[in-house]
Every structure is written in structure tokens, then in C-alpha cells.
Amino acid sequence: MTTASPGFHGRRPAAADSSRIPPGQHLTTAFPVLSAGPTPHTPLDEWTFTVRGAVDRTVSWTWEEFLALPSRTFTTDIHCVTRWSKLDTVWTGVAVDTLLAGLDFTAAYAVAFCDGGYTTNVPLADLRGDRAVIAHRYDGAPLEAEHGGPARLLVPHLYFWKSAKWIRGIELRDDDAPGFWERYGYHNYGDPWQEQRYSGD
Fold first, then answer.
1. Where is this region: Disordered (predicted)?
2. Which is the CATH superfamily of the domain at 51-194?
């Protein structure tokens, strides 16, 4: 079952913001919530983040070890496939580049796997080069569970379903493998500027 919060009927962007709003999107100042099931609440002393798959070795961090990794805080716009966009959101997280540092692999794809069984696939190139983080704070505060806390993938240049909530790790793959929404007909890549919402777009 899909659950949603109020806020999906955003206002049209002001002219000054129009260049930052992809086609078919509306600006919102809210932070709508859309989930494919109930919100997981994993105790932090049981939480781990793992990189596995087509890599020379599996690596894993506890919550304390994860928070000790170098983090960065940045401001970015986000765009949901349900047609809302939110500008100037502020996140803190660990770059995927940091998590992959020192590992040997030739994989071209990644699948994010999460509490609750959710997955999403992303070309590895879209997670590297400082393009994606595992975010653990939003707007200066710990990331709330309804927004994917304690940590979520953040890939802001793609539709927001690619920024998987409640992430627990990344599986590196030599071949592509559709994730949860991709198997239900969402676009395999999800570029908001190309309106890649559904398969065939």
C-alpha cells in the first residue's frame, strides 16, 4: 500500500524559480511523504551500512562508524515523480565516493537495498564523482524516519524515488537489475529534465 502526506498540490513556481523546475513539476514549500509501505524503525545499535556484490571485499559500518566518516553539508533541489519540486533543501551525508574508496571493482551498476525490502537501481557513474551521498541529516537535524532516516540515499539529479529511503547498503553489479518501482513500470533511469517518469518516456 502506498501512503502519502498532504502537500502534493504545490503552487506554480515564480518566474525567478522557473529555470530550476523541470517540465511538468510544481514548486512546493512542504516536504511531502510518499512510501510504498510502513515506515521502518531500525534501532541504531542494530543498523549497519554494507557495500557488497561485484567488489573485491564486502565492507560494513555500524552507525557510530558511519557517523565518524567524513561528511559534507550542501544545498540542492529535489524533484519527485509525483510532480512536486522543492528548492534549496539542505542535507548532510557521507559521499558514496568515500564509501567506495580503497575498494577494487569494475562494476558499472549499483542497487541500493533498504529496510522494508525496497530497492532501486542506479548506474554507478551517477553515484560517483560527488554526485550522491548517504544522507543522515536534513536541514540541520537528524533525518526523520518518515523522510528515510536514519539514512537515505540522495541522488538529487534524478527523480526522488531513486533517493532510496532507509538505506542499508549498496550492491555493486556488472549488469543492471531493476529495483522495486522500476519493476512496476517506472523509468529505469529517471531524469526529471527529460520527464523520464515511466517506462517508455
1. 1-24
2. Oxidoreductase, molybdopterin-binding domain (3.90.420.10)
